[in-house]
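Ticket 4471: requesting a sanity check on a complex prediction with nickel (II) ion. Repro inputs:
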Amino acid sequence: MILDITQYGNPVLRAVSAPVQLPNEDLKTLADNMLETMYEAEGIGLAAPQVGLNIRMVVIDIPEDEDEEEPSTIIVNGEEKSLRSIMPLVFVNPELEAYGKEYLFTEGCLSVRNIRANVSRPESVRAKLTMLDGSVMELDCGGLLARCLQHECDHLDGFLFVDRVSSAAKITLSKKLKKLATYR
Ligand code: NI
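Returned structure tokens:
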């Protein structure tokens, strides 16, 4: 089922989301719906607040061709993995530690229509991701996946990529954002 994607200006995008209790059978259906919604909107990641739910849950699916510009490097539980082998990723209650040098990359967001902007973030991430079956994936990654994880997990704390642009870019974006917030 395709869900409505929450748009900029909606307070649900600004709240700190609550941890998820497992097991929860309903979350499997929610994950399927979130993935379907994300594919239809041609996104590579979607966080629960973007479908109106303030819970700490995220889905990610990065297609191979999207990964070419900043190829993801992936180590799962100490073992090198291909991107395809771990997609789609569905997880709750992520713990993230970003590290390495920061670099600028153009981001967009399904909740902030028609705006793309350069955001500076660390190049790598160590993460503990809890799968819906309760197992924990220990992930060390770089490239687009590291970028996407930081962007999506920001949603769980009420942050949007437009909060993280340079102050000059903030001024440029402010008019557009005001408009978005009015016509949501
Ligand atoms: Ni987003």
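Notes from triage: The beta strands are 45-47, 57-60, 73-76, 79-80, 89-109, 112-130, 136-142. Leaving this open until the requester confirms.
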